[in-house]
Amino acid sequence: MSRTNQAAQQQKMAADELMRELKQAAGALSSRAKQKINDARDTELPLASLVGFANTELLECSKKLSVLDYKLAEALDKKIQQYKRIYLSADDLAFSPALYEIEKDNKGKTYAWWGKEHSLRLNLALDRSTARELRIRLANVIDDEILDGIELKVGGELVKLGIPKGSRNLVVGTIPKASDVSYSAFEFLLPYTKSPSEQNKGLDNRQLGVALSAISIS
């Protein structure tokens, strides 16, 4: 078989696999959505229940599509576009099931409290040809000690984080250089959460850690 025919066959196999997996995912999602809607009718907050479900499903779909995109690009001998700079605002991160709804400060800047889940996962097409600087900008924290316990794993490897001297609204780190990486799996981990109501700081019963304003990598 010629190299051209072999490449064409690989492309067709990748496309067939992509279509098959998409159909399976769509069918499964439709079934889960119908069940969730039926369950939500019996709850006091059906809309909030459905929004949380949708956010979780979107995150999982994004991960699956990233993998399929890589498989298809590999078969097509197509280079996946990677970015030397990535900026994610609170609005960009709103899909994550780890975050509560978007809020605004008195200057109109958006942020979202992280605390619904202790793990915040992102799958990023980051150019890892050299080390990259990470900055996590915060609008608020549940207490002053929590920043010291925030962890980050990239591709399962622990990345050291730090707090610039005199700052309590910024966490920084260095993403190490890596070769042959198309997508990098980021997992940010909270050490704990607390409720403002438990601390006599109001009636908010949510479990909170830090309020995220943005995550940037350059």
Describe this structure as you would to a colleague.
The structure is a single chain. The chain is α+β, with helices and mostly antiparallel strands and 218 residues long. 31% of the residues lie in helices and 28% in strands. It is built from two helices and eleven strands. Strands 1, 2, 3, 5, 8, 9 and 11 form a seven-stranded antiparallel β-sheet that branches. A four-stranded antiparallel β-sheet has the order 4-10-6-7. β8 (161-162) and β9 (170-175) form a beta hairpin. α1 (3-40) runs antiparallel to α2 (46-75). The chain is flat, with a radius of gyration of 20 Å.
In brief:
This protein has 218 residues and is α+β, with helices and mostly antiparallel strands. It is 31% helix and 28% strand.
Structural class: alpha+beta
Largest sheet entry: 7 strands, antiparallel
The residue-averaged pLDDT reads 82
N- and C-termini, Cα separation: 45 Å
Number of strands: 11
The portion of residues forming beta strands comes to 25-35%
Uncertain segments are none
What would you call the shape?
Answer: flat
Tally of helical segments: 2
- Percent helix among the residues? 25-40%
Provide the succession of SSEs.
HHEEEEEEEEEEE
- Gyration radius (Cα, Å) is 20 Å
